[in-house]
Design brief:
The protein is an all-alpha fold. It has helices at residues 13-21, 25-47, 50-67, 77-94, 116-135, 138-149, 154-161, 165-182. The longest helix is centred in the first third of the chain and has 23 residues, at 25-47. The chain is globular.
């Protein structure tokens, strides 16, 4: 009789990363399931496209799988993956790309009890915020998304972006100021 593998779902990331670096496919699969959703959300917010986000995250996990033996655990596995995904998103944003004319953003779901005028105003404000975010320099946008939408601390953002905490603070200040200015008509 074959010995049964213990359940991996409760195993800490650090242990799973070590096991995965030793070739345990199941351990890596747990890490992928555990971290895919927030990484996809990050990539989608940075890139503005679900398809591009899925490509970046898949590529990031493949890269992580290959580089696991190099992972030194100086940060958590999740922070390491945030860094890989953020870097891939920034590289993607820096490459010039043609935008298809038929590409239309998915409409925002509305509260059925809201008035049409209120829903239209909310849509317009959301569109203005998305436009303002797209107008930010990718480095500023990455810091803002990691802080405001993913709740990372300055030290984690510095690690993810490969900068200092002071640089993160400066980028967040500039991003917030630019967004505040862009959203001034909506106050």
């Amino acid at each position: 009789m074959r010995p049964r593998k213990p359940a991996l779902s409760a195993t800490p990331d650090r242990v799973l990363a070590v096991r995965a670096s030793e070739g345990d496919d199941d351990a890596f699969a747990v890490l992928v399931r555990r971290h895919s959703r927030p990484l996809l959300a990050l990539a989608r917010r940075l890139l503005g496209s679900q398809a591009d986000a899925e490509d970046v995250v898949q590529d990031a996990f493949l890269s992580a799988w290959r580089r696991l033996p190099e992972f030194r655990h100086s940060a958590s596995f999740g922070t390491w993956m945030y860094r890989i995904v953020t870097n891939r998103c920034l590289n993607t944003l820096r490459r010039p790309r043609a935008v298809p004319l038929d590409k239309v953003p998915e409409p925002v779901a509305h509260d059925a009890s809201a008035s049409p005028a209120s829903a239209a105003e909310t849509d317009a404000a959301t569109a203005a915020l998305l436009q303002a975010l797209r107008a930010l320099h990718p480095d500023l946008r990455a810091c803002w998304v990691l802080r405001e939408l993913h709740g990372l601390h300055y030290q984690e953002i510095a690690h993810v972006t490969g900068t200092s905490e002071q640089t993160v603070r400066g980028r967040l200040f500039r991003a917030r100021r630019a967004l505040q200015e862009a959203m001034r008509p909506w106050r």
